[in-house]
Amino acid sequence: MTEPSATGKIAIAAPPEKVYALVSDPGALAGMAEEYEGHRWVGAADGPAVGAKFRGRNRNGIRRWSTLSTITDAEEGKRFAFEVTTVAGLPVARWQYDIEVSGDGCVAVESTWDRRPGWLRGPTSLFTGIWKRDDANRANIAATLARLKAAAES
């Protein structure tokens, strides 16, 4: 896999299983993320398992949009990841949370890969209002990880 387009990491004084429970729950994740604000499971899915799909609701100011995510990795206490597409099925991004055991808890690493084809970047930037997606994602990851740390350590 190529290098992520944005990534960040943070030490958390909590067990890896607790951190995993937070990042693998799309509802809990919505409370920590910057743009992502909620979800609903699609089809027979009712929880975080490989192959499960959820429709994500996202926002930036007054702009709102929906995406479809498919869970690709769900290894408790270690990794949770999903591929994001437009509602029309065009690739958007991959989001991945890696959790590594450390001395007094764990280290959480959040990464994303921009999967949009070049021709889709302009229209999606216009729609979302975010022109420097990698810069925005780096800032969003830092904010999400800080909230994750606070939630896991409480």
Total strand count, please?
Answer: 7
Radius of gyration: 15 Å
CATH architecture assignment name: 2-Layer Sandwich
In total, the number of domains comes to 1
- Relevant CATH superfamily: START domain
CATH topology group:
Alpha-D-Glucose-1,6-Bisphosphate, Chain A, domain 4
Mean pLDDT: 96
The CATH class, by name, is: Alpha Beta
Q: How far apart lie the N and C ends?
A: 34 Å
Order of helices and strands: EHHEEEEEEHH
Number of helices: 4
Task: Indicate the percent of residues in helices.
Answer: 25-40%
The SS-based structural class is: alpha+beta
The low-confidence parts are none
Please indicate the percent range of residues in DSSP E strands (runs of 2 or more): 35-45%
Overall shape: it is globular
Protein name: SRPBCC family protein
Could you please describe the fold and organization of this structure?
The chain has 154 residues and is α+β, with helices and mostly antiparallel strands. It has one domain (6-153): Alpha-D-Glucose-1,6-Bisphosphate, Chain A, domain 4 (2-Layer Sandwich), CATH 3.30.530. The protein has helices at residues 16-23, 26-30, 118-128, 133-153; strands spanning 6-12, 36-42, 53-60, 63-75, 79-85, 91-102, 105-114. The protein has a seven-stranded antiparallel sheet with strand order 1-7-6-5-4-3-2. Strand 4 (63-75) and strand 5 (79-85) form a beta hairpin. Helix 1 (16-23) crosses helix 4 (133-153). It starts with 5 loop residues before the first strand and ends with a helix. The mean pLDDT is 96.
What features would you highlight for this structure?
154 residues, alpha+beta, Alpha-D-Glucose-1,6-Bisphosphate, Chain A, domain 4, 7-stranded antiparallel β-sheet, globular, SRPBCC family protein
